[in-house]
Automatic annotation (TrEMBL):
It is found in: Cell membrane. SMART domains: AAA. Pfam families: ABC_tran. Residues 317-346 are annotated as: Disordered. GO terms for molecular function: ATP binding; kinase activity. It is a peripheral membrane protein. This is ABC transporter ATP-binding protein. The keyword Transmembrane helix does not apply. Residues 8-241 form the ABC transporter domain. It comes from Zhihengliuella alba. Its main location: membrane. CDD domains: ABC_DR_subfamily_A. Keywords: Antibiotic resistance, ATP-binding, Kinase, Nucleotide-binding, Transferase, Transport.
């Protein structure tokens, strides 16, 4: 990343919600000291499971929510207090769009463009994003993916310096997703700071210059995709063996740190980190069982492998690190499981 002043700096960000009636009126802490930087000319991604705290972090970074601790600097200002001083320089695409249902996309984009001194040409933006096909249909009649494209256009029409995109590919078909990705890369190349959230590994891996993985309202890892997927040389590659033989699971392989994934077609895959010891364990096991694999490969570790490892080996959807993100806050600021009662509240 460049050494110039970042577009966005977040340090030690804390956010509490409540009081929550279901928790006897206690507050819940959802952000526990999040830190991040977003540079101009880069796509910075907040990657996390549902409920990790991505949207809350973005809302604080945009000045929509007041932090309960820590600092946020957006274009050199505290966004919560700066108001109009920075609003025209920031584009925001919210989850669920927040679009007025009875307005038509063309009218909406012309209206939003009219609020800025040097906006994009709404017609050109609509053509680029394929909105012209439904430019005169009321927003409430549009599909989720069509609304998503209108929301993106509304975020970009003012020619912002920083753009916040919350789950930008949600609901898009593959072609629209490709168009949106190309546009995001172009904006990045034109020098904009792009901050996006996603829980989709593929989006993060394809788009990001720098990734912050957050879980339970905390930073758990950060780096470029290359750094995150390869900074541990011994864990940089994933070992995969495919064989056509009925097999469910194997304790011997499990003990060696390898997992067996059967599929419907009677094949199975043995997956693990490609250390020499694992390779030796697998080949010895194959020999003992008289199985000749149809494929044996060592692949680069993907962002998903890193993420699942950090999230405790469960699926990306709903993976946790052991404590729920909205667990109550104890007096010392530590999260506690929901079943336990803290002695006090904040
Ligand atoms: N107003 C609120 N009151 C209480 N809890 C809230 C409130 N807003 C968010 N939360 C909780 O804060 C946590 C973080 O929510 P947030 O929307 O930031 O997560 P996220 O990572 O963006 O998730 P998703 O991918 O599902 O959008 C969640 O547990 C959520 O239930």
């Amino acid at each position: 990343m460049s050494s110039s002043t970042p577009a966005l700096t977040v340090d030690g960000l804390r956010k509490d919600f409540g009081p929550v009636a279901a928790l006897d009126g206690r507050m819940v802490r959802v952000l526990h000291g999040i830190g991040l930087r977003a540079e101009f000319g880069a796509v910075t991604t907040l990657l996390g499971t549902n409920g990790a705290g991505k949207s809350t972090t973005l809302a604080c970074a945009q000045g929509l929510l007041k932090p309960d601790g820590g600092t946020v600097s957006l274009l050199g200002h505290d966004p919560y207090r700066a108001g109009s001083a920075i609003r025209s320089r920031v584009g925001v695409m919210l989850q669920d769009g927040g679009l007025p249902p009875s307005v038509r996309p063309a009218a909406l984009l012309r209206h939003v463009a009219g609020m800025f001194r040097a906006p994009e040409d709404p017609a050109a933006l609509m053509a680029r994003l394929g909105i012209d096909e439904f430019a005169h249909t009321p927003i409430r009649r549009l599909s989720g993916g069509q609304k998503q494209r209108v929301a993106l256009a509304a975020a970009l029409v003012g020619r912002p310096e920083v753009v916040f995109l919350d789950e930008p590919s949600a609901g898009l078909d593959p072609q629209s997703r490709q168009t949106v990705f190309e546009l995001i890369r172009e904006l990045r190349d034109a020098g904009l700071a792009i901050v996006l959230t996603t829980h989709l590994m593929d989006d993060a891996q394809r788009l990001s210059d720098y990734v912050y993985i957050i879980s339970g309202g905390r930073n758990v890892a950060e780096g470029t995709v290359a750094e995150l997927t390869s900074h541990e040389p011994t864990e940089a590659r994933v070992l995969e063996v495919v064989a056509e033989a009925p097999l469910a699971a194997d304790a011997e392989l499990g003990a060696a740190g390898l997992t067996v994934h059967p599929d419907d077609g009677g094949r199975f895959r043995i997956v693990g980190i490609s250390t020499p010891a694992h390779l030796a364990a697998v080949t010895a096991w194959l020999e003992r069982h008289g199985v000749l694999p149809t494929a044996l490969s060592m692949q680069p570790r993907s962002l998903e492998d890193v993420f699942l490892h950090l999230a405790g080996g469960s699926g990306a959807e709903g993976a946790t690190t052991g404590l729920e993100p909205d667990a109550p806050v104890d007096p010392a600021g530590r999260r506690t499981p929901l079943v336990q009662r803290p002695n006090g509240t904040e």
